[in-house]
Amino acid sequence: MSLLKINGLTQQFGGLTAVSDFSTEFQGNELMGLIGPNGAGKTTVFNIVSGFYKPTQGKILFEEKPINGLKPHRVTAMGIARTFQNIRLWHDMSLLDNILISQHYNLGYNLFDLFVRNRRYIENEKRMRNIAMQLLEQLDLVQFMDEKPKNLPYGIQRKIEIARALSVKPSLLLLDEPAAGLNSSDVQELIKLIGWIHKEFKISIWMIEHQMAVVMSLCSWIQVIDFGKTIAQGTPEQIQNNPAVIKAYLGDDQI
Amino acid sequence: MKKFSVPALLAIIAAGTVIAAHFELIDLYVQTVIMFIGVNIILSSSFNIINGYMGEFACGHAGFMAVGAYVTSVLNIMFFTSSKSFGDPILSPELALWFFPVTMILGGIAAAFTGLLVAIPSFKTRDDYLAIITLAANFILVSLFINMDSVGGSRGLMGMKQIVFAMEDVAFIPWMLIWTFLFTFSTVFIIRRFVSSTYGKGIIAIHQDEIAAEIMSVNTNKMKLVAFMLSSGLAGIAGGLFAHILGYINPNSFNILKSTECLVMVYLGGMGSLSGSVIAAIIFTLLIEGLRFIIPAMDTLIHFIPLVPDTFHLSQVLKWVIIPLILVILMQFRPEGIMGNRELSDFFPKLKRYYEFK
Ligand SMILES: Nc1ncnc2c1ncn2[C@@H]1O[C@H](COP(=O)(O)OP(=O)(O)O)[C@@H](O)[C@H]1O
Ligand SMILES: [Mg+2]
């Protein structure tokens, strides 16, 4: 059984074909990279998989079930979590609340329970708090739990966004340029963190990244797209030496 | 025990007021002002759900108040009084007392469902466009009642005093004061529980980043539905109280001017601050009532120092200059309102020892 299977995905915006005939497959527990020049359509692929866009064409199966057309919150509830190229935390509430609210897929109580504050409400609030606290401990973020993300360093914010994505217990984690805007020591931390998450949580990770150091040291398989089309895929060594990739990144005259 | 201090104090204030009213230690006018404070607390705190916590700009709150006012009033008149339009009472008038909370809640439910008029468009529309829709909803609801002759059309609806008398016939105590206290406390309690739960915080997440909310498994459409229905339902409760406190309603009591009052209260108190909404409702009501005395006094003053011709008079219409002016001044000098998005307990952390809102 495959975890995620994408077949012939095409996305058009008016006349522009942002993604064209894109296919890929995850068996579970891989760490794959998606790279390509700016505007190649990488984020668009993530936006389609997470339910923000309905693809013009193509099929997406997650754990053998079709997910095209599902709303993002439903896709997340099924086990695909993601982060954004530009951090999207709830900046004006505490880190703990950021994690708690992400438990909406699994509240375990309804409005009535909430208004009467019955046992079901109290127990589920406690359960969600425990989940959040456990995760913050695992990721060494407990000391920030009452802080608002906007007051924390950028590197920590990136980490928090990943923590928040993990809080929905995903089986597939999509990271959109997690190293963007980080300094070199933060990037080293991030590489360690992603590698550790991959081992510790035993999940599949799919990563868009511009910094080759990150992709080459983490990913076992890399797919390269340019103008929406897949131009190469393979192991980091194969990609590094692929003439089509070098051409896409550096332009014709460089060769 | 300490943690019951604040609730106990509130209960004593409420009971004290009711007893004082019963023994005519406070006159009818003061009682009415106290009840209007209650109505305004319900209006501002329920409006804050949308404009404060969820961060949308709605501006038609009075429309939902109208629905609650009319539905509760018509049900009460139909069931418990004899009237020209609705004939003999269906049930015995003594029962009015027991059914009053029921008809109030039915009015609230009806208002909650008219909230769908705004909630459903809010799935796809936001900001200025949603503001225009809420404005339109306010107009639609007011026009609806103006054109419904069976409930008095533009002349308005009377007979709610009969209901109050029917309740007082059962036991001669200030019932409306009691109901106002009960519904006001319950409203604040319900909203407090809602926005402090993980469920309710979903609307704060929508405010701060709707896309992040949706991706982190918050069903944003459902949350908007819940927020708008809760907000408009509570506005309906305020309407039901308002109708029975005055004993008379008219569609134009619920027009855009009333909605503007709600806006002033929310922004005065601070968006996303429940204690701010309560404080603002108290200050605002006292200010408006104060103007009843201040405006004639100013009028006398400017004629005393003959500043203006004798034929010129300051009227109560000046209120409608002063209220929007407060909004202008507020936005200029303290756009976050009295409390910002903080609560009283954030300013006075020790306060937390004296209550336990759970
Ligand atoms: N919602 C949209 N509407 C129109 N064009 C879009 C939209 N989203 C992305 N695009 C276009 O699709 C192309 C791919 O964008 P994107 O996926 O963000 O690239 P990247 O690979 O840098 O992440 C770009 O040309 C972009 O302008
Ligand atoms: Mg991108």
Shape of chain B: globular
What is the fourth-level CATH superfamily of chain A? P-loop containing nucleotide triphosphate hydrolases
Runs of chain A in which pLDDT lies below 50 for 5 or more consecutive residues are none
What's the mean pLDDT score of chain A? 94
Rg for CA atoms of chain B: 21 Å
Q: Helix and strand succession of chain A?
A: EEEHEEHEHHHHEHEHEEHH
Amount of beta strand of chain A: 15-25%
Query: Which cofactor or ligand species appear?
Result: adenosine-5'-diphosphate, magnesium ion
Distance between the termini of chain B: 15 Å
Tell me what the CATH architecture of chain A is. 3-Layer(aba) Sandwich
CATH fold topology of chain A:
Rossmann fold
What is the CATH C level class of chain B, in words? Mainly Alpha
Helix segment tally of chain A: 10
Overall number of structural domains of chain A: 1
Global outline of chain A: globular
Helix content of chain B: 55-70%
Q: Give the name of the CATH architecture of chain B.
A: Orthogonal Bundle
Oligomer: heterodimer
